[in-house]
């Protein structure tokens, strides 16, 4: 027994998936199609998608926002967990992968629930005039803007709402002492700032590549 987070080797990780992953055939097909793309690493882990769906249900979230959508796996997980009155705004850049996301959302019958806005996310966020109206915001876009996305998230979330950041352990690169990469520096800055940010309650889960949950106080 140990009082620290387990280090999952391949077989224990596979066990975790075997006993808990409830991926639908549609999600599995989307994940396989995405896996063949050059940017496949942008896709969330399937257990993260399932966890996001659980968060939507746990919090009773109705108004969702996603920053960084790619081929739409996490959006599909979250939209499927919404009640009929719920909706999801997705921010991403125009790219060939937008069509993949839309195709799967349509096939799932969730196309009407998801509003994909194609522009730099900071531009879309700046135009969102619904302060305090979002219940949950999932952030998985360009890492260099993570600190800026936090500020937008805190403006847009209701009190008690959740901001969820992906890749906050960044494959371990957060340990670099003099990172060349602006992405690494931004994730480090976000993590450091969140530690003492009195505006949020905080937990960094070692799920996937690190998933940080911030509850707006
Ligand atoms: Ca990610």
From TrEMBL:
One of the Pfam families matching this protein, by short name: Methyltransf_3
Top-level taxonomy: Bacteria, Pseudomonadati, Pseudomonadota, Gammaproteobacteria, Pseudomonadales
Annotated keywords: Methyltransferase, S-adenosyl-L-methionine, Transferase
Keyword ATP-binding set for record: no
Gene Ontology molecular function terms on file: O-methyltransferase activity; S-adenosylmethionine-dependent methyltransferase activity
Coiled coil (UniProt feature): none
CDD domains: AdoMet_MTases (cd02440)
Name of the featured protein: Predicted O-methyltransferase YrrM
SUPFAM superfamilies to which the protein is assigned, alphabetical: S-adenosyl-L-methionine-dependent methyltransferases
InterPro entries linked to this entry: Cation-dep_OMT (IPR050362), SAM-dependent_MTases_sf (IPR029063), SAM_O-MeTrfase (IPR002935)
Organism: Pseudomonas reinekei
Entry's Gene Ontology BP terms: methylation
């Amino acid at each position: 027994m140990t009082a620290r987070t387990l280090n999952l080797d391949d077989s224990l990780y596979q066990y975790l998936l075997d006993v808990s992953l409830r991926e639908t055939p549609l999600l599995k097909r989307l994940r396989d199609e995405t896996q063949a793309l050059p940017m496949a690493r942008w896709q969330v882990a399937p257990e993260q998608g399932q966890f996001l769906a659980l968060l939507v249900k746990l919090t009773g979230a109705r108004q969702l926002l996603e920053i960084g959508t790619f081929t739409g796996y996490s959006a599909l997980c979250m939209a499927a967990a919404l009640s009929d009155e719920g909706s999801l705004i997705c921010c991403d850049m125009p790219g060939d992968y937008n069509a993949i996301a839309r195709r799967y959302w349509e096939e799932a019958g969730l196309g009407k629930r998801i509003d994909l806005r194609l522009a730099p996310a900071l531009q879309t966020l700046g135009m969102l005039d619904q302060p305090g109206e979002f219940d949950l915001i999932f952030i998985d876009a360009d890492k260099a803007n993570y600190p800026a996305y936090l500020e937008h998230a805190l403006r847009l979330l209701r009190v008690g709402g959740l901001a969820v950041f992906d890749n906050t352990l960044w494959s371990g690169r957060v340990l670099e002492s003099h990172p060349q990469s602006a992405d690494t520096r931004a994730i480090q800055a976000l993590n450091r700032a969140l530690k003492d940010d009195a505006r949020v309650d905080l937990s960094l889960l070692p799920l996937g590549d690190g998933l940080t949950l911030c509850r707006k106080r």
